[in-house]
Amino acid sequence: MNNRTKNSIYSLILVAIVAIVWFYRDSQNPKTDILPYIFISGEAQGTTYNITYSDVENRNFKNEIDSLLRKFDQSLSTYLKNSEIVQFNKSDSLQFQSPYFYPVLRKSKEIYEASGGAFDPTVYPFIEAWGFGPEKVDFPDSSRIEEIKKYVGFSYILFDKKKVKKEKEKVSLDFNAIAQGYSIDVLYDFLDSKGIKNMMVELGGELRVKGENENGDFWAIGIDDPQQKVGQQPERVAIIHLDNEAISTSGNYRKFFVYEGKKYGHSINPKTGYPIQRDIISATVVAPSCMEADAWSTAFMVTGLEEAKKILSSQDHLEAFFIYEDENGDLQHYNTDNLNGKIIL
Q1: Strand partners, 283
Q2: Exposed e or buried b for every residue in 297-329, given b needs 16+ CB within 10 A?
Q3: What's the pLDDT band for 329 if we cut at 50, 70, 90?
Q4: 105: burial class by Cβ within 10 Å (0-12, 13-18, 19+)?
Q5: pLDDT-based confidence at 320, cuts 50/70/90?
Q6: What is the pLDDT of residue 120?
Q7: Predicted pLDDT of residue 259
Q8: 244-286: pLDDT as tens digits
Q9: pTM listed for this prediction
Q10: Euclidean distance between CA atoms 102 and 87, whole angstroms
Q11: pLDDT, tens digit, for every residue of 99-136?
């Protein structure tokens, strides 16, 4: 074997050793091309929020997010005495003081009309009457419900980009079935404006995602088993993969009260004034925005399964997953066709 051949062999061995060492070190160290994921959490709107996102600058936006949530509540929370919505409920009109009131009114009107009145933010007097508002009250009688019906209806609300007014004195608004989703959109838009490409924004169980998670996959969201008892280990009946979408689930299996042996859930039918008694136990909606997902998941709890299917046939930007009781009282699942391939049961 001549020297040239020997040198070639030695060179190949050296290259192989360098490659082995490089691959070993690479396997032991984090990938440098993967952005760090930041996790922040806090309390807001009587619940908690959890946000995770990747950022090449490793910025922590907790202070800005907490500030945004406080400003948001000053506009749309019925639990703050001086909020915009409380001011409106006590008067006959309101000049908007924040950028939040008009967008939620506009979207509320859109979904009120598309749902045939199943979603109606003027349901607030019924919510108060049944004790699901800030104050606890006695069980309402039928005459009280009939009286309240006279001033429930979104058609009594008139608004433009600058102000809102009511056509009847006692009309009141409650955005709790849409505002939480909207607040998630506000936080999402803030992070998006900062150049964040991958994120999950969750508040009170509702959330909106963008891009990929830490593993480079679509964000996967579990749907709770409605028969699971409080305090038990979480169990999922389905997992839904989201692609730059928002998701919200509504149900009466956690927030309710029992009166004379009968359970009353917190979802009120704005047309009857009574807590709903429908076949849908849990309504999950996937939509482009969390404001839409939040409102529609509430609306479908009111409409029931068959009416929900009819509405969804004309709302192809929505995806839905329902858990419902059949005629025998057994739980069944239903999902829209456009959710196939994204849901694991």
Answers
A1: 250, 322
A2: bbbbbbbbbebbeebbeebeebbbbbbbeeeee
A3: confident
A4: buried
A5: very high
A6: 95
A7: 44
A8: 999 999 986 555 445 444 545 557 888 888 877 678 999 999 9
A9: 0.83
A10: 15
A11: 999 999 999 999 999 999 999 999 988 887 877 655 55
Q: At 274, which amino acid appears? A: Y
For the chain, what is the total number of helices (H) and then of strands (E)? 9, 16
Closest CA to 83 of 182, 181, 217, 179: 179
CB neighbours of residue 10 within 10 Å = 10
CA–chain centroid gap for 137, Å, is: 28
DSSP code of residue 316:
T
Those residues whose C-beta lies under 8 Å from the C-beta of residue 90, and which sit 6 or more positions away, are: none
N-terminal to C-terminal alpha carbon distance within the chain: 66
User: What is the rounded CA–CA span in Å between residue 340 and residue 286?
Assistant: 12
> What's residue 125's pLDDT?
84
Separation of alpha carbons 78 and 87, rounded Å: 9
> Looking at 131-205, which runs of residues are DSSP E strands?
157-159, 163-166, 199-203
Instruction: Report yes or no: 139 and 106 within 8 Å, Cβ to Cβ.
Output: no
- Report the 3 state secondary structure along 105-133: HHHHHHHHHHCCCCCCHHHHHHHHHCCCC
d(CA 252, CA 263): 10
Residues 6+ apart with CB under 8 A from 179: 72, 76, 77, 104, 294
AA letter at 115: S
Residue type, 294: D
Contact predicate 269/302, CB 8 Å: yes
Other CB atoms within 10 A of residue 42 CB? 13
Token digits of residue 160: 């433009």
